[in-house]
Amino acid sequence: MTNPVVVGIDGSDAAYAALGWAVQDATRRGRPLRIVHVREPWRSEHPDGGGGLSLTERSALLLAGAEERARRRAPRLEVTTAHLFGAVVERLRTESETADTVVVGSRGLGGFAGLVLGSVGLALAGHAHGPVVVVRAPERGAGGGGEVVAGFDGSADAEAALEYAMDQAAARDTRLRVVYARHTVVLAPQAAGYGPLLAGAMADEAAEVARRLPMWRDKYPDVEVVESVMTGHPVPVLAAASRTAALVVLGSRGLGGFAASVLGSTCHGVIHRAHCPVAVVRAPWRRS
């Protein structure tokens, strides 16, 4: 059985942007699409301003409309829908157990309010069983233009992210840019004297990044891979790279320049500032 691309919808613009991205991704990578709407059980069945429709009826219409959108964009795509009950993050985390990827909008309505840019979304991206892709409205990157960018530092999560990025680049027939950002600290007012030491450290790190890539080049020989070892905080470096990228892929936690908390300050910062969809990947990840 081929694991599906799962997309969560709630009727918001960001959710429909996520739906468009998910349709394109499932089509490119030959996967079925599963559209889910999570209804929190404590919400009233007959909300004010519901136009006479119950919450169940509105949810059914939402799913039917999303399915129709998906089928219009990709008539041959296998599409299923699911109306789920429970806490949003818990249900999406459960979905991630059998999904190839879970796709969400960056902001939502109702049960998905603040989904990714708040604590709920951090929990999902940090603890999902597979990649989580965050798509911002208006939709960008669904057409597949631009390179795939992967933040890399050699950590286990970064290795998993790199494999997912390779898979994405291969499906898009585009280049993969592997970015290592070193956040240097000024050690003294006369920091110029440290220049040769810092340059040597950067060279060593560039060599280490290059040493880790041949295995992936052998596995994905048709993907052009370029390396960028840069000085600067990873968040602005990756945010700048996202301006011309189709997708930015990050490990949920990292080492060195990407060191972070439970999800990762770098992931959190890039999700806030990226100009294209962002995928967050936890180790282990292997193509299903």
From TrEMBL:
This is Nucleotide-binding universal stress UspA family protein. Belongs to the universal stress protein A family. Residues 1-136, 148-282 form the UspA domain. Pfam families: Usp. It comes from Nonomuraea roseoviolacea subsp. carminata.
